[in-house]
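New to this. Please check both lines:
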Amino acid sequence: MSTAAVEHVERLRRALDDFSPQVPVAAGWGRHLARVLTGGGRLLVAGNGGSAAHAQHLTGELVGRYRDDRRPLSALALHAETTSLTAIVNDYGADEAFARQVRAHGRAGDVLLLVSTSGRSTNLLRAAEAGRETELTVWGLTGPLPNPLAARCGAAIGVPADSTATIQEVHQVVVHLVCDAVDATLAAPRRRHIHLVHGGH
């Protein structure tokens, strides 16, 4: 194995160790999402480049399924709305690419998750501001804290790593932690129902 590969894995191992105190935050996000999405709310997500892929991975798991078979949950990746996105960029500029969609689709109580390794992308900063104005719950998934995006969010998870690749790899772990907590939260009432029906046997 090459020295570069060993160093890559070691950076990821250190980042995961440093991230571990934030695992309960990710689980809390999943529990909150389960309540919002089963109560008629929606998740809006956005990111640029690789962060867009992570955000869209999350929506795919929620609309489809992560682990357990369950009802589909409403989640929309704003960067994947290509017709709206290109029209907005053409008419209003790239900085408004996501903010205008947040104002169109977001309703009070919905959740907006913005994913950025740098925490400095202007289109995501504008989206966070639009989310707060629209009374959405705004979360940021970023690189090292502090950063401008995290400062504009109601809550943020920051990955303490210098390498963009490492930050993105930990972001994928966060996506799965959130999905796992969603599934666990939705499965709990079913488990209680089965326990009651069978008298605890």
Residues 21-197 form a domain with the Rossmann fold fold (CATH 3.40.50.10490). The helical segments are 3-19, 23-38, 50-63, 82-92, 99-105, 122-133, 148-152, 164-197. Residues 164-197 form the longest helix (34 residues). Residues 192-198 have pLDDT under 50 and may be disordered.
